[in-house]
Structures are given as structure tokens and as C-alpha cells.
Amino acid sequence: MIPLKDNIPTNSFPVLTVLIIAINTGVFIYELTLSPDELEIFVHQYGLLPTDILQLNILNLFTHMFIHGGIGHILGNMLFLWIFGNNVEDALGKVRFLALYFGSGLAAAFLQSFVAIFEGSLDIPMVGASGAISGILAAYMKLYPYAKVLTFIPPFFFFFFVLPAWFFIGYWFLIQVLYAMFVPTELGGVAWYAHIGGFVAGWILINKLYKKNLKLVHYSAIRY
């Protein structure tokens, strides 16, 4: 399922959401200028290997979140970040939003690395903002469970569906869990456990970071 738009207005311009998207886009454009050999060196230098966790390589814990493995990878991540991140940033404010984003990303990195170490996959670098964005999705689901998400489901061409956020994000999370359980890491090349770790971290962190009472926000009007 591909989200196209939600119906939650924002009270301020999402500066950090836009900045994170811009940095990711800039890094990806730089990746496109590299030869295959140069790109491999770049990914291994700034991506996250499980050994980086063991060696407490702090730099790579953050740099890997700004590297992506292809056009579909970055487009999907940035689309999700834009649609759901702007509202979460609006609700939390700048500092707490960054704490949620990077806190979720770090939790994702640790869980995925732990699984990789357990499986013996020590030479595969992890890249992408998916773990951090998973935390944003969890926060959005908790803040706005009844928000309406205009959704495109690829098999149903030319048809669009309006789904409640709790269903859209809940279904997305279920898929991550199922793939993590039944698809070997070496197949598909997707860090499913990073998605799970980031989501769980975001679900926990939003309770600590959101200072107001968590009330279920229900916007009945749908404006697209």
C-alpha cells in the first residue's frame, strides 16, 4: 500500500522533516555520481556493519540513516516521512522530533545488528532511514489513529482507498513482522528487524516525548 495524503493539517512548516528529506536526497544524488566500485566503498565506509556496533563506531550509527540502496528505496522512505513526519514534528516540536527520529533509528540499528550477529551476517552493511521512519509511523499511529490516509494499492490500478491510520500503519507493521519471521535475511535484502525495532522504539518514545495527554484525534472531514 502506498500512502498519498492524509487529512491532518499542520500548524507550522515542518522544517526538520523537509531538511531530513533534503539531506537524504542530496546524499543519494551524490551516490549516483559514483562508479559501482566507488559506491561499494562509500556504502561500506558509511553504512552500518554489525561490527560497528561491537566497536562502538558512533559515526556510522548515524551516517547509515542517510544512505539509500536505490531509487525505490529512497522514494518510498521519503514519501512516508513527508506524509507522516510533518504531523509528528508539528505535535512534538523540533527537539523532541529529532529525539524520536534518531532514537528510533538507533534502536532499529541495534536490533538489526544483533540479529545479523546471531545469524553470522557480519559483512552486510545496513543503510537507509527506514528504522527511524518506522518510529515516526508508530508515533503517528498513536497520535492520530483515526486520521484518514488516501491510499493507492498497486494491484487495483486507478482505484484509491481512504483508510484509517491505525489500519494502514497496523497492516504495514504486521507485514514487517511476517517477513521478519519467514523471509531469510539474505533473501530480499530488506532489514525487517530494523523496521520492527524502530517501530517499537517510536511507540515507547512517543509516551515520553509528547507532553500533552495522548488523546485520540479523529478528523471526520476528508479534504483532498
From TrEMBL:
GO CC annotations on file: membrane
Domain Peptidase S54 rhomboid as annotated: residue spans: 59-209
A Pfam family: Rhomboid
TM spans (from-to): 12-30, 65-85, 97-118, 124-144, 156-175, 187-206
SUPFAM superfamilies named in the record: Rhomboid-like
Alphabetized InterPro entries for the sequence: Peptidase_S54_rhomboid_dom (IPR022764), Rhomboid-like_sf (IPR035952)
GO MF annotation, one: serine-type endopeptidase activity
Protein name: Rhomboid family intramembrane serine protease
Taxonomic source organism: Sulfurihydrogenibium azorense
